Amino acid sequence: MQTRSQWLTDVAGDLPPFPQLRQQITADAAIIGGGFVGLWTAIALKTLEPNLRVVLLEADACGGGASGLNGGFVMSWWPKIGSLLRACGDDDAVWLADQTTQAVLELGDYLAQHGLDANYRRSGWLWTATTQAHTGAWHAALAATQRLGRDEVFQALSPQELAQRTGSAVHIAGVFEAINATVHPAKLGVALAKIAKTLGVEIYEHSGVTALERSRPARLVTAGGSVTAAHVVIATNAWAASVPELKHKFVCVGSAIVATPPIPERLAAIGWTGGESISDSQATVTYYRTTHTGRIIFGKGGGRLYYTGEPGEGVFQDPVGIREAIADFRRVYPMLADVELERHWSGPIDRTYDSLPVLGSLPDASHIFYGIGWSGNGVNPSRIGGRILAGLVLGRRERWTENRLVNRKVRSFPPEPLRYLGGSLVRGAMARKDRSEIAGRPPSYLDRTLARFAPAGLEDKK
Ligand SMILES: Cc1cc2nc3c(=O)[nH]c(=O)nc-3n(C[C@H](O)[C@H](O)[C@H](O)COP(=O)(O)OP(=O)(O)OC[C@H]3O[C@@H](n4cnc5c(N)ncnc54)[C@H](O)[C@@H]3O)c2cc1C
Fold it and tell me: Ligand 1 pocket test: which of 78, 104, 237, 298 has the largest number of ligand atoms within 8 Å of its C-beta?
């Protein structure tokens, strides 16, 4: 099996590499990290203030981190409405969730306006149960949308409709969120880098920041040069664990994906032709979708925990996560048992306790901002995050910067080694609980108890 992300393989050569930083330069704003968060921030800054000098430093290649490895689900925050309400209160929660809806709706047109295409397809998302214990996992989210006057967000589907749309009768209950889309994430990364470049963002690749001096202006050091910048944005996903003020705000967990070859005729035979993306309700969530070429991309979240939160090279090839993804794929689509899996890969998830991001400025360095903790739903919300971060850099007083998501207090994870040891115990319990429930057996008391300590998931369940 091939071990490079299908997406990154598809776009190899589409984006001429950006230079390495080899001199000392100054900037109004320096962004660390060339994933979706960093790129959207750069784009928002240059869109709002075209004369600003914006420099983006990427350790590897733009879009080569989580942004080039993900499932390409372009999702709203409505499945997270419970956490949003707790974090931000009614007004801001609804406003933010509405912004994510708007962002999903606009993405395809925004790329088209720039003459770019990332296989954006708006076919909706199915939130399903594949075992009795998970039915109704969406009840609280559904009730909240109804209370908040957004009844149209989720539609309940009958088991027959679900089986028909997903191509598998394993899905016994579920709801449909019609606005959600899918995208080719690496094509999106290429598109955003091209837009940023056109707007005048100075991008340097293979230019990892090795030291961030909190002086005013700040100084960012790379192997070949440095940037002196009035403002800094940290957009480095789980690699932000190297920043002492941020490392307790999230844990790094793995997520793994397997991909079939193009099998459009098999998809037609089972009836999964509508382009819907699908997640189940396991704590170690499985998520799957089809591509424009007729592949199935099948992922498994809630994977292994990484010590100190900082992902090492192993994060790109997690054998346990990949094995679990394969097992779930074979369970959900037994009629495709003869289809060989062509590729597998994995990547880091920067997971906060409530699985919502944290955005703000460092306590003793108000000119250094961060946007991390996307928790496995960052493809679409990164655009919201980029707009918020740009507003913060520009010192704007507006809804983007003055809502309660910004500079919120979040629950800290314990220090190491407790975080790793305790977290691994909890992760093991979550996985065993999921396996028992899928098999129709009650989970053990110990696993149920330990699993209660798990951070919130990709969706707020029950
Ligand atoms: C397997 C997987 C599946 C996922 N599926 C989905 C999905 O279907 N839908 C969804 O919404 N979200 C999904 N996500 C999450 C989503 O990919 C991210 O939240 C989103 O891409 C935003 O990423 P980012 O910009 O924060 O991080 P990244 O894309 O990881 O970008 C951070 C960048 O920072 C760079 N960097 C790190 N340290 C330094 C340094 N010192 N100096 C300079 N640069 C540095 C890294 O090289 C990296 O390129 C998934 C993630 C994974 C791993």
Answer: 237
Ligand 1 neighbour 59 (Cβ under 6 A)? yes
Per-residue pLDDT band for 34 (boundaries 50, 70, 90) equals very high
**Strand 296-300 and strand 343-351: pairing?**
unpaired
Query: In 3D, which of 342, 347, 343 has the Cα closest to residue 316?
Result: 347
Beta strand 277-279 with 125-129 is parallel
pTM (whole model) above 0.90: yes
Cβ(67) – ligand 1 distance below 6 Å: yes
Residue 37 Cβ inside 6 Å of ligand 1? The answer reads yes
In angstroms, the CA 371 to CA 433 distance is 32
- For tokens 């899905």, name the residue: 171
Phi and psi for 342 in degrees, rounded to 5?
-95, -30
**Which residues does 434 contact at the CB level (< 8 Å), separation at least 6?**
282, 283, 284
Pocket test residue of 80, 188, 374 for ligand 1, highest count of atoms within 8 A of CB: 374
> How remote is the CA of residue 138 from the centroid of ligand 1, in Å?
27
Name beta bridge partners: 172. none
Relative to beta strand 24-32, strand 226-234 is parallel
* Residue 16 preceded by cis peptide, ω within 30: no
Residue minimizing CA distance to atom 2 of ligand 1: 70
Atom 16 in ligand 1: residue holding the nearest Cα = 378
Ligand 1 geometric centre to CA of 145 (Å): 29
Question: Which residue has the CA at smallest separation from atom 22 of ligand 1?
Answer: 378
Q: How far apart are CA 139 and CA 359, in angstroms?
A: 29
Take residue 126 and report the two structure tokens written for it: 């199915």
Alpha helices, DSSP H only, in 258-345?
Answer: 264-270, 319-332
Q: What does the pLDDT read at residue 313? A: 86
User: Each residue of 378-430: pLDDT tens digit?
Assistant: 999 999 999 999 999 999 999 999 999 999 999 999 999 999 999 999 999 99
Give the separation between CA 315 and CA 318, rounded to whole angstroms. 6
| The predicted structure's pLDDT at residue 1 | 77
b/e sequence 425-452, b meaning 16+ C-beta within 10 Å: ebbebbbbbbbbbbeeeebeeebeebbe
Q: Are 246 and 370 in contact (CB under 8 A)?
A: yes
Residue minimizing CA distance to atom 21 of ligand 1: 67
d(CA 311, CA 297): 23
Report the SS3 class of residue 16.
Answer: coil
